[in-house]
Amino acid sequence: MKLRGIWAVFRKEFRENLRDRRTLLSALVFGPLLGPVLVAALVQFSISHAEVQSEENITVAVTHAERAPNLLAYLTARGIDIARVTLDEAGARQAVATQTHKIILDIPEDFGARLQEGQPAPVILYSDSSRGFDRRGVGRVRTLISQYGLDIAQLRFLARGIDPISVLPISVQEIDVSTPSSRSVLVLNALTYLVLLSMLAGGLYLAVDATAGERERGSLEVLLTTPVPREHLIYGKIAAAASYMLISLVLTVTTFSVAMSFVGLERLGVTANLGPRAAATMIAYCAPLILFGASYLSIIAGFAKSYREAQTYLGLIITIPTLPLMFAGLLGLQAKLPLMFVPFLSQHLLMTTVVRAEPIAPLFVTVSVISTLIYGALLMYLAGRLYRREGLLG
Amino acid sequence: MLEARGLCKSFGKVTAVRGVSFTARDGQITGLLGANGAGKSTTLRMFYTVLKPDEGDALIDGRSVKEDPLAARRAIGVLSHGTGVYNHLTARENIAYFGELHGMSRAERDARAAELIELLEMQPFADRQAKGFSQGQKLKTALARALVHRPRNVLLDEPTNGLDVMAVRGLRKLLVQLKETGHCVLFSSHVMQEVEHLCDEVVVIASGQVVAAGPLADIRAHGGDRLEDAFVALMTGNDVAAIEGSK
Questions:
Q1: Which residues of A fall within a CB distance of 8 Å from B52?
Q2: Residue of B85, B102, B142 with shortest CB distance to A226
Q3: Shortest Cα distance from A29 to chain B (angstroms)?
Q4: Mind telling me how many Å the CA of A387 is from chain B's nearest CA?
Q5: Choices 3.40.50.720, 3.30.559.10, 3.40.50.300, 3.30.565.10: CATH for B2-75+153-246
Q6: Residues A237, A203: contact at Cβ < 8 Å?
Q7: pLDDT, tens digit, for every residue of B88-111?
Q8: Residue range A72-98, pLDDT digits in tens
C-alpha cells in the first residue's frame, strides 16, 4: 500500500517518456545504436588504413642520384623505390612542402670523394614532420642509410684487422609482451567510456523532465497535494529514469558486441572478448551504477530552477563521473581493490578485464557492486530529502 | 469546511501572510479577494500543504494540515496557479493518474474519469494527448484531476486566469454545482466580477492580513453596493473602521 505511489509515478513517467518520440530517438537510438556503430566503423577504417600503408612501397626522390649508385642500389634492394629528380635546395624544400615528393634525398657533390678519403660523407634528407602519416617512411629511409654506413664501417674495420663486433658494445633487444587481447584495449578504449556515458544519457531527459520540467510546467504543485509522501514521488521518478538507463545500457553493449563482430580486429593481431557472454557480464557489472546515475541526475536537475537551466548543468555534470576514467587512461591504472570503491572507475576497470579476457577476483566484483549500490541508495535518500524541502517549488 | 487560524508565513525577510483567520463553510463558495501579492496564493498553499505555516494552523474538516498533512490532502481537491497538465498523457490518463495517486483502484478511477469527462463535457478531446489543448481544455482536465477522488473541499487559485468567456462560464457552472452538492469551495481572485458573480462569502486580503470578511452583500455595502468601490475603499483604509465594527 505504501509503495503504490512510487509505482504509480514510475508507470506514468515511463509511459510519458515513451511517447516523446524525439527524446526516445536521441536517448535510445543515437546514443546506444549509432555510437557503437561509429566506433566500430572508425576501428575498421584505421585497420584498413594501416594495411594499405604497410603494403605501400616507400618512394624517395633522389637528386644527383649518379653521385651515389651503391647507396641507391642498397636502398632499392631493400624495397625503396627511387625517383630520379634534379632540384636545388630551394626546389627540394618547395617540393616537400607542396608534397610533390614526400621524401627527398640530396647527394652532395663531394659525397663520393669524402667516402673514399674516410671522411664523414653527408647526405641531406628532406621531409615534412607535420604530415603524420608519412613519418614511418622517413624513419625507414633514415635507418637504412645508417645501416649502409654501418656496413661500410665494418668493412673498414675488417680491412684494418679489427673485429667489428668490438665497436658494438651494446645491443638492444626489444620484446613486446602485449598479447593480442591486451592490445585490443588500446583499440577499444573508447568502449567503456561510451557505454557509461550512453547509459547516463539514456535517463537524462526523463530525469530533467520529471523534476525541473514538471516544476516549470506548473504540475508539480498539484502533484504535491496528493496523499503520496513527497520522497515517494522522487523515488518513482528515479526508478523511471533508471529503467531507461538500463535499456540504454543493454542496447549499447549489445550493439557493440554485434558491431565489433563485423570488424576484422584479428587482422591487427588483436582479439577482443566481446561475445554474448562477455556482453552479459559487462551489463551485470554496470547495472548497479544505474541507481547511482539516476539519483545523481535527478538531484542535480531538482536543484535547477528551469528546464533550460537543468540542461545547461547536465551537459557538464554528465561528464564528471567519467573523469576518473580519463585519469585511469592517462595513468594506466590497473584493477586494484581500493579502486573498486570508486563508482564508474570500478565499472570501467571491470569491463576492461572482460574485454582483455583476464581473470578477476570475485572479491573485486563484490566490492564494486555493493559499494556502488550503497552510494546509489544514499543518493536516492538525499533526493528524497531534497523533495521534502519546502523550497522545492522555488 | 476550511478554517484558517492565525496563519503566518514568511520567506526570508518578507512576510507574506500575517495572522490570517477565516472560515469557508460547506455548501458555500468563498472568495479570497486581494490585489496581486496580497498573500492569497500563500494562504491557499498552506491549506493544500505545499507550505507549512510558521504560526497558526489550517484545518480541513477539522484536521490540522500541520499534524496530518496526508489526511488533509485526501480531503481536498486543488486547482493550482497555472494548470500544468502532462502533455504526453491524454486527458483521461491525466485524470486517472491522480486517481491512482489518491489510492483509487483501476476500476474505480476509470469509472470516475468517465463520469467527470461527461460532467465537464470533455468527450471530444478526452482521448487526445494534452499537448495541443486550448486553455479551456487544459482547465477542464485540471479540474477533473482535482475532483477525481471526490474531495469535499475544493481550492482554486486564480482559476479564471487566461480563460475565454465560454470557459469561464463552464467553470462557474461547475462551481455552482459543487456548492449545491454540499462541497466547500474556496477560490482566490483579483477579478471583482468573478467574486461578485459567484461568492456567498468574501474574504478581502491586503498585505497578508484580512481587512474584511463576511457575506458578499455586507462587503458590498461598504462601497455603495458596488464591490469594486468597496474594495478600493477597504484598500485605501477609508472604511476599515466601519468594516471592523460590522464583524
A1: 390
A2: B102
A3: 20
A4: 11
A5: 3.40.50.300
A6: no
A7: 999 999 999 999 999 999 999 999
A8: 898 888 888 888 888 888 888 888 888
